[in-house]
Amino acid sequence: MDSSFFKGQDRSGSSIRLRASVHLLNTNCSDKIRKNRQKRKVVESNVNVDSEHEVLECKVDASSSNERSFSDAQLLVTECEIETWVKEVYHSSRGKELPGNYNHVLLSELFYIQSSRWYQIAKDHLNSVHKVIVGFVKSRLRHIIHDERIFSDLLEIIIASLQTSQKNAEEELNKLWQDEKQQPITYNHYYTDNVQKSRQDTTRQMIRKAMEGARQEWGGRFYISNNQIDAGKLLASLQSHVTVDMDKQACSKALAGLNAYYKVALTTFVDNVCRQVIERHLLRTLPEIFNPETVAVISDGELERLAGEQPSDVEKRANLRALYRILSDSLRNLRR
Question: Is residue 263 within 8 Å of residue 194, measured between CB atoms?
Answer without folding.
Answer: yes
